[in-house]
Amino acid sequence: MPSLFPETGEMTWTDVTETELLEGVTPVFGRSWRFDFDAGEFITTPTRKIAVADEKEAWVQWCEKAIRTPRYRHVIYSRDYGSELEELIGSSFGHAVQESEIQRIVTETLLADARTEAVDQFTFSWEGEACTFTCRIRNVRDETEIIESVVI
Q1: Cα(34)–Cα(25) distance, rounded to whole angstroms?
Q2: Are 111 and 80 in contact (CB under 8 A)?
């Protein structure tokens, strides 16, 4: 009986890793709508249309939203999306430990996106139990931006 899966000279099977498949593939930067995180609403133009964010601004907004969204809470998001910063609220850890955890969590959250190349230059300021931090993000196009004052 002939095989259902014949092998010919044209078909050669090799073990290719995922990183080898992704080499040379440029992440897609798309556009989005501009969002005001302080007001909690989309930004509109004078003609009452929702303002469009360019590719870099859309990526920066993605980063800010990913940090602000609790991981595992919303079924619509993948398990890789969001941060676990809420777990630090009310913790009894010292400031140094909390700063280290914030840095780790934010870095892991943002590097989940293929567009993000690096997260660094964290600065922290404490007012009582509230911590405000800023960090620099860099994408694969070598564009940088500072994410400011994300409060936990």
Answers
A1: 27
A2: no
